[in-house]
Amino acid sequence: MSTGIEPDYVTSAQLDGEAAEPFEVGTVQWIRRPGEGDRAELAAGYWFISPEQAPGAMEVTGHADETIHILQGHVTVEITGGATLDLRAGASASINRGVTALWTVHEPTIEFFVYS
Q1: Is the pLDDT of residue 29 over 90?
Q2: Which pairing describes strands 84-88 and 27-32: parallel, antiparallel, or unpaired?
Q3: Of the options 2.120.10.70, 3.40.50.300, 2.60.120.10, 1.25.40.10, the CATH number for the domain spanning 20-115
Q4: DSSP E strands, the chain
Q5: CA 112 to chain centre
Q6: If pLDDT is split at 50, 70 and 90, which confidence band does 31 have?
């Protein structure tokens, strides 16, 4: 029985800000673009953002479940009606699709993310 998923799909990347491309805000270096490997809901990459690119709080409603790990920098994520996450290098978080939050970038930040 075929699942329609490429069983041998593999991709990799080395963290490289020079390979990043414009994103909604900041830039992104894709490891796995949305839809690659016949997996429409799965994507991963590195997000590069600075306070100059995102002055003040940005309201974001997640379009996918997202798990993040901060490699460098500092962001605050204030979940609407919930917790405030103060994320610095080494911190991780996972946020459900549809959650609205205010993101504030305090320092130039590199985030590894997975959308699922």
Answers
A1: yes
A2: unpaired
A3: 2.60.120.10
A4: 21-22, 27-32, 43-49, 58-61, 66-79, 84-88, 92-95, 100-115
A5: 6
A6: very high
For the chain, which residues make up each domain, given as ranges? 20-115
Structure tokens at 87: 């994320």
Q: Is the pLDDT of residue 25 over 80?
A: yes
- How far apart are the C-alpha atoms of 37 and 6, rounded to whole Å? 6
CA 72 to chain centre: 13
Cα distances (angstroms) measured from residue 13 to each of 31, 38, 62:
6, 19, 24
Residue 34 to residues 63, 81, 91, 100, Cα–Cα distance (Å): 12, 29, 24, 21
- The model's pLDDT over 36-79, given as tens digits with 9 standing for 90+, comes to 998 888 999 999 999 999 999 999 999 999 999 999 999 999 99
* Residue 9 confidence (pLDDT): 86
What is the SS3 assignment for 30?
strand
